[in-house]
Structures are given as structure tokens and as C-alpha cells.
Amino acid sequence: MSGLRYIEGVVTLELDRERCIGCGLCVQVCPHGVFVLESGQAVLTARDQCMECGACARNCPAEAIAVEAGEGCVRGIINELLGLEGPCC
Ligand code: SF4
Ligand code: SF4
User: Fold this and answer.
1) CB within 6 Å of ligand 2 — which residues?
2) Which of 2, 38, 78, 84 has the fewest CB atoms lying closer than 10 Å?
3) Residue limits of the 4Fe-4S ferredoxin-type domain (predicted)?
4) What pLDDT is recorded for position 3?
5) pTM for the full model?
6) Residues in contact with ligand 1 (CB, 6 Å cut-off)
């Protein structure tokens, strides 16, 4: 088996480019490099690598990003295993 593989086409992440104001926060907070800024706007370049942590959507000041966070949140999974409550990512 070669390295980690991502399942294509199942990510809930959506970007509304008409709302994007190009602040770049999503580029900064995404741990998987899913976004880049091009011509002053966010672009999804690696959508299938999104782990649905929700950080981009929570930090976007323009509410341009929607994602069903939770399924891939490592902190949430660890907290659940430890029997702890806490915010996801
Ligand atoms: S939900 Fe998390 S992994 Fe997915 S694009 Fe946003 S910051 Fe990146
Ligand atoms: S955080 Fe929101 S407004 Fe800022 S660049 Fe990303 S999508 Fe655009």
C-alpha cells in the first residue's frame, strides 16, 4: 500500500466566490492547503484534501465558506475517545 489516500467527491466544502473579499484567512488557517488566493480571491485548489475541520468557515469574515464540520476533526475524535467534551479543532 502506498501512502494516505483521499476519497474524491465526498467533501461538503463549498466556496461562494461572489462573497469572498480576498482576506486570505482561509489560506492561513487551513491545515491542508485547500485554498490559494488568485487575483485577490480564494480558490479551491485541493478540495478533496479537506478534512472538514471547519476552521476556514469559522474564520471567514464574509461567510463565503460552508462545510459540514465534524467528521474529520482530529481533536473531536480524540476528545471522544478520551470521554472529554470540547470544541472541534
Ligand atoms: S474545513 Fe478545514 S481542512 Fe477543509 S478547507 Fe476548511 S480549514 Fe481546510
Ligand atoms: S476567508 Fe473568506 S473572505 Fe477571506 S479569502 Fe477566504 S473565502 Fe475569501
Assistant:
1) 20-26, 42, 60-62, 64-65
2) 2
3) 11-40, 41-70
4) 59
5) 0.76
6) 13, 29-32, 34, 50-56, 67
Q: Give residue limits of the domains in the chain.
A: 14-82
Q: Tell me the one-letter amino acid at 54.
A: G
Quick one: which of 45, 42, 25 has its CA closest to 34? 45
Distance CA 31, CA 51 (A): 9
Q: What are the pLDDT digits (tens) for 22-67?
A: 999 999 999 999 999 999 999 999 999 999 999 999 999 999 999 9
For the CA of 52, the nearest atom of ligand 1 = 1
Distance CA 13, CA 67 (A): 4
